[in-house]
Amino acid sequence: MPYRIAGIDVHKRMLAVVVSDVEIDQEYQFARRMFGSNPEQLRSLAAWLLEQEVEEVVMESTAQYWKPVWEALERYWKPLRQKREGARPKSGTLHLAQAQSNRGPRGRKRDFPDAERLVKRLVARELTLSFVPDAEQRLWRTVTRRKYQLTRDHVRVQNQVESLLEEAHIKLSSLVSDLLGASARRMLTALAQGETDPAILAGLAHRRLRATPQQLRDALSACADLKTVYRRLLKMMLEQLQFLEQQIGQTRSGDGQSA
Question: What is the distance between the alpha carbons of residues 90 and 88, in angstroms, rounded to a whole number?
């Protein structure tokens, strides 16, 4: 019984797909077909692979374009392939090859030849394969990456706030441990909204704050002559921080929910 493997060269808008029996002594004979990358075409790809009795599929990890192809085959091809009568232990296996391990001569991409080379190198065990977690794990990895990006953006904007205050001669960061803590944020919000009296700003601090009112007034003394552009920039940064905090909160709220 032939053992057929498919190779898929993935592009943004099209897929070059080849299929060959790999349990032969002579040169591989490939069936070739082009598919689009939209959902309907991916379902057609899965149906064609079933029709061709393909046991395994290997594709190249091209940017993010491999992901919808993988997910479509995982949904429409893999379970049906595994349930077929006489299915072998590796039936329905998907492989993701690192692009570097499938480079052609001089790094050229040539669609069908690239797909054929994937099959040949998979059989020869010359590909470097990547681990791909299951669908639920991939979802949570996406959420985790987004949370990391948001947190990194939050730190970046917080640093920009401190830099702006230093440039404007507002020395608040030298007196508070957390520039975005409750006391500091109340003072910064009032400052951004146009308050010019250091005493009023200092009065917004919590009584447990270690800095004395006099120290706060001194640190905020430049607010009386603060240029409008600094207030506007500070307001924009505070709004951006609030938005990022809301986004981070939404990613955290989904941690306990099922995918």
Answer: 6
